[in-house]
Amino acid sequence: MSEETTTIDTAELGEKIVRVLKTIYDPEIPVDIYELGLIYDVFVNEDNDVKILMTLTSPNCPVAETLPVEVEEKVKSLDAVKDAEVEITFDPPWTQDLMSEEAKLELGLL
User: Fold this and answer.
1) What pLDDT is recorded for position 6?
2) Which positions of the chain have pLDDT values less than 70?
3) pTM (two decimals)
4) What's the pLDDT score for residue 54?
């Protein structure tokens, strides 16, 4: 396989991962975690191992235990994904500025 093909596969897989992330909602806010800006980064290596760097709306978020597990499980359910790991960070802390325009509109913040 040429290097270019691998790059396309990784990019395609990245798009599929984003589509999955958009099906996961914060239980307190009717907006998906991607549009909320909770996903800081998605890394896919050449072995299709996925690492997701995400945050929560607050360190005391009631889903702090369950949301990362849900993200891992849903991403792992993609056929092309070999393994998935979620790392939670509060650096930088989440603010409403990280939300997409769509999310702000949905919540009446625009």
Assistant:
1) 54
2) 1-8
3) 0.88
4) 97
Q: What is the CATH number of the domain that holds 58?
A: 3.30.300.130
Cα–Cα distance between 29 and 93 in angstroms, integer? 17
Give one DSSP letter per residue of 57-102, joined into a string: SSTT-TTTTTHHHHHHHHHHTSTT-SEEEEEE--SSPP-GGGS-HH
Residue 107 maps to a domain: no
User: Residue 71 pairs with which residues in a beta bridge?
Assistant: none
Query: What's the angle, vertex CA 2, arms to CA 81 and CA 51, rounded to 5?
Result: 25
Please give the sequence-ordered ranges of beta strands (E in DSSP) within 1-110, or none if there are none. 39-44, 49-54, 83-88
106 within domain boundaries: no
Average pLDDT score over the chain: 90
Q: Which two tokens stand for residue 16?
A: 């599929």
- Residue 108 included in any domain: no
